[in-house]
Amino acid sequence: MFYCRETELRKLNSRFWGGKFECIVIYGRRRIGKTALINEFCRDKPTIFFSALDATGQENLRTLSRAIMEYERPGAERAPEFRDYADALEEITRLAARQRLVFVIDEYPYLAKAKPAISSMLQHLIDHSWSSSGLFLILCGSSMSFMENQVLGHESPLYGRRTGQFKIEALTYRETAVFHPELTAEENALIYGITGGVPHYINKLDVRGSVDEALLTNLFDRSSYLFEEPENLLKQELREPAIYNSIIKAIAEGASRLNDISMKTGIETGPCSKYMKTLLSLGIIKKETPITEKPGKKTIYLLEDQFFRFWYRFVPQNILAVTSGKIGTIYPQAVGSHLSDYMGLTFEKMCRDYLLYYAEDLPDSLQEIGQWWGTDPARKKQIQIDIVGVPAEGSTYLIGSCKFRREKTGIGELELLREYAGAFGKGKAYHYYLFSKSGFTEGLREAGRRGEAKLVSLEEMYV
Asked: Taken in order 359, 360, 366, 368, is the CA torsion positive or negative?
């Protein structure tokens, strides 16, 4: 079933029915749903769908030939092969002259590696033939760096030829819940925290009863797809997966600065920095700096990919129980009892996303939303604020707290936020937001009714 990409689908359809030549670039990390989007778009349209292989140029030419012939002669047992790519692409030109035609090249980086001249060949055809035709060309790829540099970048032969691009992102927590409307807000939050809003992972987790049962069956089991997913993904994307695995594991275990990660992995800082740059480009890790400061000494590294964060948090330390088949016995203590703590960072992201995408009463002057940590000059102690919204101009800030706990959040949390706001100096105004999984005490609700703070429960985030 197709979920949650209605905006992208509507824009693609609008361009298709416009009738003009289009060169659309669609990219995003693996498993994110790019091909599902393209398939849904092409479902009722004349389409030649060519999925490139991580193989030789000749093998890819055979695959392209079959794709073209399947369009021309559906169901034919044998199809002739074109002599070369020029002949195959010339056939595309001839077919597009007859009617509006979608031509998809999926996994374009594989084709470019197998046939380095392909981007120049496409450029020539766009400039001299296709731009005046009704062809709807889609170039799709999972290698983020390749698509951004070698397709969209200034040095690419295709630079300036694309008519539109779509970077497909993970679903938000609210979009993730569309897969399981029968579950509670807390259960859907947990599914988001495990899968990171990646549709493929949501489907593979396959929650039918409880999330705990789904985890035991479809992740904490050596025969399950999700159990081997991080290792398989690293092998697909990287030449030295073992090194990257050690870096990810170090970050998952709490090393957050370059020197700490270097020491924990035994990799010198220079090479370690290069490896981490690759992980950044894949969206597996991220860099964070206190929102009001420039990158520097306070910059830290965290796991950006929620599925990797969950897997590395719980699988390595329980690997013996998994391999011996005893994980079901220890699961309540080894995993279940730690899920609320694990969800802390996920909930902070959910709350920031709520403010970015769903809140309707934010101050108009806000420019950026993030987190902040540093020294409170008045109290000479280290503090951390879950959410800080910085104004583009003026002096009105947003200060927020996020609590994924069993206890209701009380008035003390608002008082603490007021204290922490002093770290930004005098003469500023503040809007306070408090988010809570378990709701709020009557004292804090009364403060909310007086307009002292905006209170948002987990259930309200899903409405």
From this structure: positive
